[in-house]
């Protein structure tokens, strides 16, 4: 993403799955995987060819880009 791209925060996985995504304080939606996230970022103005899911423009909370469902707490 470039310098004009919004600051993106991906929240921890929700109990029912998926992660809430926000940019510059605006909720973009609930994403269930990298393709969803890329689409939200494209709609927010990011160049799809410049999106680096592991880059410094995305803050991941509760796990990185490989975590899309909550931890299994059943035991």
Which terms summarize this structure?
13% helix, four-stranded mixed beta sheet, elongated, alpha+beta, 75 residues
Whole-angstrom Rg? 12 Å
Termini separation (Å)? 41 Å
Mean pLDDT figure: 87
* Estimated helix fraction: 10-25%
Flag low-confidence runs.
none
Q: Classify the beta-strand content into a percent band.
A: 25-35%
Give helix and strand order, one letter per element, not per position.
Answer: EEEHE
Tally of strands: 4
Biggest β-sheet strands, sense, barrel: 4 strands, mixed
Shape: elongated
| SS field, number of helical segments | 1
Strand order of the largest sheet: 3-2-1-4
Q: Classify the secondary structure makeup into a structural class.
A: alpha+beta
Please, could you describe this protein's structure?
The chain has one helix spanning 34-43; strands at residues 8-13, 19-23, 26-31, 58-60. It is an alpha+beta fold and 75 residues long. It starts with 7 loop residues before the first strand and ends in a 15-residue tail after the last strand. The longest helix is centred in the middle third of the chain and has 10 residues, at 34-43. It is built from one helix and four strands. The protein has a four-stranded mixed β-sheet, covered by helices on one side. It is elongated and about 45 Å long.
């Amino acid at each position: 993403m470039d310098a004009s791209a919004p600051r993106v925060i991906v929240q921890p996985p929700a109990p029912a799955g998926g992660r809430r995504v926000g940019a510059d304080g605006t909720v973009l939606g609930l994403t269930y995987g990298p393709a969803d996230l890329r689409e939200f970022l494209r709609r927010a103005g990011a160049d799809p060819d410049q999106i680096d899911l592991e880059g410094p423009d995305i803050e991941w909370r509760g796990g990185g880009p490989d975590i899309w469902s909550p931890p299994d707490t059943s035991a």
